[in-house]
Structures are given as structure tokens and as C-alpha cells.
Design brief:
12 helices; 3 strands
């Protein structure tokens, strides 16, 4: 077995069962679900459990999430080009879509964090929550197989896909900016990371976007992608006003 089974307290077991019931699923191995909630900060503070965290499950769940989402889009949007499918997929499997899902299903209450991460507000950090969604998907895949995991993914993700299809989701400003800028000038925007601030566990990234000789930003985000999106929005909004 790739993970070390441990005896769960009666209360933790009840919490895991309740979490599963709320999702309409059942784990044969509750220890596997429990592992999905262990952030690396909890293992960093316990040398004997150095590798007991959810990162491997997150890696696996990311692939299951991507495959299930891509397959659904392929079947659901038969008249659309690959670019449309890729754009929607990138939006709905992003941190900004997954973090609210995590809060809705109660992942924030189930997380196991190290003391430092807990004190710094880790229980409400979008990146940690989104990663944990993927870890839960990975754990369910190992526990019950792809078909069950796919069903869970679609229950969580299809509502997000519909929001984007109905233009109620968050706009992908990087795509919008690139399409507008290429159409006008036959060139692509260039993104540059200009600074990183804060400690390793709570970094802020600063990005500018260059459109020829013009610069927009710096814009900040909790990761490089979100900073790029904000910079792109600044540039896109400016270009729209000039039309």
C-alpha cells in the first residue's frame, strides 16, 4: 500500500463518513480519504510523518479531474473547436473554480494543517482548498475506481461549465486580451514576473504585461497565473476604452 494506514479516532471517522454522505459517496478505506485532507505543513512539523500528506493524491486527482472534464466537454460541445474546449476546461479546473467548490462541500472544515499554516489562515487559502479537491478526487479514484470518480467530478464541475457557457463564470482575460491584441496588431502579449513578496507559505506574485512598448501593471496575485489574469484584465479594459 502506498500510504500507511493509521487508526482514526471515533470522532474523525464520524466526520469522514458525514463528509462522504454529503457528497453522496462512500469510502471503503476512510484512511485514504483522511490522507486527502493532510496538507504538507502537517507532515513538515512531524519528522516521522514527513511524507504523510496529500500531494501524491493531488497529483493523481488532477489527472482524473482533467480527463473527466475533457471527456464531458468533447461530448457536450460537438460543434466547437478545440480552442473553445481548452479555454473552458482551463477555467473550470482552475483554483478560482475549485476553491469555492471546496468551501461548499466542507473541505475547509476537514483540513489537517500544521500549526504555522493554521495560524496564517491556511484553512481559507484558495490554493490549499483547490489542491485538496483534487486530492479527494484522487483518493476516491483509488478507493472506488474511475467510473465513480468521474461521476463525482461531473457533479462538481458541470455546474461550473454551465456558468462559463452562459457567460456567468469568470472571464479568461488572458485569452480575451490575446485575441484582441493579435487581431489588431498581429502580436502576442508578453507577461513578465517582476517581483515575489512574502514568506514561502504566503507568497504574493507581481506581474506586468507588455503590449509592444506599453506596460500594464504590476498586478498582484497569490500565484503567477492569477497575477497574469489581473494584469491581462487591466490591459484588456484599457484597450476596450480606446475602441
Amino acid at each position: 500500500m502506498f500510504f500507511q494506514k493509521k487508526k482514526l479516532s471515533a470522532q474523525r471517522l464520524r466526520d469522514l463518513v458525514s463528509f462522504s454522505k454529503n457528497l453522496g459517496i462512500k469510502f471503503r478505506q476512510p484512511e485514504l480519504l483522511d490522507l486527502a485532507f493532510h496538507h504538507r505543513s502537517s507532515s513538515n512539523e512531524s519528522p516521522e510523518n514527513l511524507h504523510v500528506n496529500n500531494e501524491r493524491l493531488e497529483f493523481l486527482g488532477d489527472s482524473v479531474l482533467g480527463m473527466a472534464t475533457a471527456t464531458f466537454l468533447y461530448e457536450d460541445m460537438k460543434d466547437n473547436q478545440e480552442g473553445d474546449l481548452a479555454r473552458i476546461k482551463s477555467m473550470v479546473v482552475s483554483e478560482k473554480s475549485l476553491a469555492p467548490i471546496a468551501r461548499t462541500i466542507g473541505i475547509d472544515r476537514m483540513l489537517i494543517l500544521g500549526k504555522g499554516e493554521e495560524m496564517s489562515g491556511g484553512r481559507n487559502k484558495d490554493a490549499i482548498l483547490a489542491d485538496c479537491v483534487e486530492a479527494v478526487i484522487g483518493a476516491y479514484y483509488l478507493d472506488s475506481g474511475y467510473e465513480c470518480a468521474e461521476k463525482l467530478v461531473l457533479e462538481l464541475i458541470v455546474p461550473e461549465i454551465r456558468k462559463v457557457q452562459e457567460d456567468r463564470g469568470q472571464k479568461d482575460y488572458k485569452t480575451l486580451l490575446q485575441e484582441m491584441y493579435q487581431k489588431k496588431y498581429k502580436m502576442c502579449p508578453v507577461y513578465e514576473l517582476v517581483d515575489k513578496t512574502g514568506p514561502d507559505h504566503d507568497r504574493t506574485f507581481w506581474v506586468v504585461v507588455k503590449l509592444g512598448d506599453r506596460k500594464f501593471g504590476p498586478a498582484k496575485g497569490k500565484n503567477k497565473k492569477s497575477a497574469e489574469q489581473t494584469a491581462a484584465q487591466m490591459a484588456y479594459d484599457s484597450l476596450k476604452k480606446e475602441e
